[in-house]
Design brief:
33% helix, nine-stranded mixed sheet, disordered N terminus
Length: 367
């Protein structure tokens, strides 16, 4: 195990210590883990542990803002899935959804931090659902931000990502001329894919995304990992029986917070209806101006909903949100992402559903 301290700029000027990043060896892989963020106590007790899992092409860095927002509530760590971020590819080359799930379980068992409040975005959301179904002893609650649950047909803006899973397409893409496309231009295209309002991405976040894109393109395994994991998602979408993600969602018994953005180009908020019906104990937060990475675009609003969720589990003034005005809301069945209602949520579900409408947005990268 090794560790290194990183420092990042503060918005107000100066610097702040960022989460320690260390490598942890588990069976079949070596994972990079950042954190913990939040190591104090609440009401005389240590903060409960939380683990954050990123999406396809992302890294633990995607959770920086939300982990900061929750640092007084949970002791948070973020893991780089095998082959992503600073983690090495798995020794056996298994980049399937179940392979990623095994890696996260391996880390929780090696660290002894479970059970945890588990957070997942996109691919990480699918990982979290399967993990919670298979190992309920490791999970206290789920927060799923634009989770990659089977959605057929997917929205058209998600097709290019799905094409990565088609044999021969990645090799064809590598042979195609770049037409002078710079790393900055390529990163801009990726930001446009995952953010609801790319103009709102802070300059430091944009610069970090460019630097990470440049670093990843220099890794010999980067495309292989991206393609293998994309195929893993597509394969998981077609699984039936006990391995079906929707069947596994029904098996989850811990409280679940679902977060969707109306401007998400990869996961349609319309799948929120099915998700709310599938999970036994679900709440819904819809952010009208958010894209695919609400934890980066609207960390304060997401954190407020998490505080509400955790307050239900362990009531106490430290866990309650300072200002939470969300109320149950409904959306007509015919509503779509292209024709949003003013206060969108899910109608006719047996579980609590809350929606909050927010203005503005802030800013990377993970599908």
């Amino acid at each position: 195990m090794s560790a290194e301290q990183q420092v990042e700029p503060m918005a107000e000027g100066g610097t702040r210590a960022r989460a320690e990043v260390r490598t942890v060896e588990i069976p079949g892989a070596v994972l990079a883990v950042s954190g913990p963020v939040g190591t104090g106590s609440r009401d005389g007790a240590q903060l409960p542990p939380a683990l954050f899992v990123h999406g396809l092409g992302g890294s633990s860095d995607n959770w920086t803002e939300l982990m900061d927002e929750l640092s007084d509530l949970v002791s948070g760590e973020a893991v780089d899935l095998p082959g992503f971020g600073r983690s090495a590819p798995p020794a056996d080359g298994n980049l399937s959804l179940s392979g990623h799930v095994r890696a996260v379980i391996g880390y929780l068992e090696a660290s002894g931090r479970g059970p945890v409040h588990l957070f997942g975005n996109s691919l990480g959301g699918a990982v979290a659902v399967r993990l919670a179904a298979l190992r309920p002893d490791l999970v206290l609650s789920l927060t799923l931000i634009s989770p990659a649950l089977p959605e057929l047909p997917p929205q058209r803006t998600a097709w290019p990502t799905g094409l990565l899973a088609v044999p021969g397409v990645p090799a064809l893409m590598r042979r195609m001329p770049s037409n002078g496309r710079s790393v900055e231009d390529a990163t801009e295209g990726l930001l446009r894919l995952v953010y609801g309002d790319v103009a709102a991405v802070p300059e430091e976040r944009r610069a970090a995304a460019v630097a990470e894109y440049r670093r990843r393109t220099g890794l010999p395994y980067a495309m292989q990992v991206l393609v293998g994991s994309a195929r893993g998602i597509v394969s998981a979408y077609t699984e039936r029986g006990e391995q079906s993600l929707w069947r596994q969602a029904q098996q989850v018994r811990v409280p679940v917070l679902l977060v969707y953005g109306l401007k998400d180009k990869l996961v349609s908020y319309r799948s929120a209806r099915r998700a709310c019906a599938a999970f036994a104990d679900a709440r819904l937060l819809v952010l009208p101006e958010s894209g695919h990475v609400a934890m980066m675009e609207y960390p304060a609003q997401v954190a407020r909903a998490v505080r509400e969720l955790l307050a239900e589990l362990s009531p106490g003034p430290a866990a309650r949100p300072e200002a939470w005005s969300g109320t149950p809301a409904e959306v007509p069945a015919e509503a779509s992402a292209e024709t949003p209602t003013e206060r969108p949520a899910v109608a006719e579900t047996p579980t609590p559903a809350v929606a909050e409408t927010v203005d503005g947005g802030a800013g990377s990268v993970g599908a």
